[in-house]
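Researcher: Checking consistency across runs. Here is HD/PDEase domain-containing protein again:
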Amino acid sequence: MILFCHDWWHIARVRSLALRLANLEGLPADALEAVELAALLHDVNDWKYAREGQDLLTAPNAIQDCLETAGAAPDLTARVLAIVAGVGFKDELGALQRAVSPELAVVQDADRLDALGAVGIARCFTYGGRFRRPLHDPGVLPRESLTREAYTDARCQQTTINHFHEKLLRLQGMMKTACGRRMAEQRTAYMREFLQRFDSEWRGEL
């Protein structure tokens, strides 16, 4: 299954943003290799790509095999696996707050920043179209308390506009780095302006 909002260019943008955040946040040079590799590999065997019946627990093994084949040192492989394991949005739904390493913080923030702003809007509608989600239905309200189970259940289809309210607008408050929070604030403001315009046009006011 190809998800065009999670293609190579998504990976390239996350890599670039993660390295930029790492430099802005003052991470040491020896952390950059783990950050870059984790950004490149963070979507390997992601659950969103899975076909029905496919094993979703193969990502760590696939990443480990890739790194070992490339000759990565065991400690580097362990660091990359630890970063990738913590990136996902679903794993923070209903979970207790946990310690986050600086390396994980920049990769996670970079991945979430790519879901915001103009690129985030484009990705959201691409994803919704791929899964034939309704564009908008004013009678279907966003879920205010989204659980991990509901978020990952393909049967719980929501409208594309509701996805903004259920997930995307929440990401700003989930950023881990100071630089990520500043970027997220700008990108989220742009999305809010878009949603206000969308609502006005939907109701025929503009």
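Researcher: Does this match what you'd expect to see?
Model: One thing to look at in this run: The chain has one domain: 4-202.
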